[in-house]
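Write out the bound-state structure for zinc ion.
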Amino acid sequence: MKDLPDRRLLLVHAHPDDESINNGATMARYAAEGAHVTLVTCTLGEEGEVIPPALARLTADRDDALGPHRVGELAAAMRELGVSDHRFLGGAGRYRDSGMMGAEQNGRPGSFWSTPVDDAAAHLVEVIREVRPQVLVTYDPDGGYGHPDHIQAHRVAMRAAELAADPAYGSDAPHAVAKIYWNRVERRVVEAAFDRLRTTAPDAFPGIAAVDDVPGVTDGERITAEIDGSAYAGVKAAAMRAHATQIAVEEPYFALSNDLGQPLLTTEYYELVRGERGVAAPVRESDLFAGLTGAGEDAA
Ligand SMILES: [Zn+2]
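---
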């Protein structure tokens, strides 16, 4: 892959749609700036619910055809974001959606949650050593909100980064990811956005979600990087809309299948957990590549 651009960003997500909700503006920005953006999605999201009544038969308890449908939704979303390198961990359908925590699907053979971390990480090590990203983005140890596939995506991403850097692991040339970030949402910001939703669009959806329903909500002190994606707000909304079985979009808000409205945030927040900050605290980075020699803003 010697022809890849200087700046390379890898994102690891559990299901199709998580990337657009969490990082859509960031992905669109870096793709537009000429960075190489790679998305690895760990499952097809086969156990998800379906919003449009006309597609209700796709669910796992009926035709069990949601996975292949979501492959198409993800491809459409990536076209909106301008991201051409998107892959499924181990190939499409290798690991199945594990359902919500406590569901019997958690322990089903082939479920992502029941897969040993090192087995799944081996596939991601291949991607890391091929693409050689400087920056990796994934969830926090709770997966943002406790979904087993999100927790497992976190574990697999962190483990793969460790193994990819180990010269004793496998035969491909090792690669150390310089910076690892976890997805965050700033509590103060999302609270203000919920206040706007309640006052300006209280009837946009049948109900309104709670702040703590938003994955990755934390106080501002933990946030080290803030990507202003306002120039990509429309693109992010279009990518989310492409996941039509999962997301109903009413800009600047959206709802998942629970019909509870929440803000569609176009500033995206991150916590650096490995590597050096590109700017001294308490200033937040405005570029995930900040401080990286040969890969920062100057090299773009
Ligand atoms: Zn998910």
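---
The helical segments are 18-32, 66-81, 117-131, 148-164, 187-200, 233-242.
Residues 148-164 form the longest helix (17 residues).
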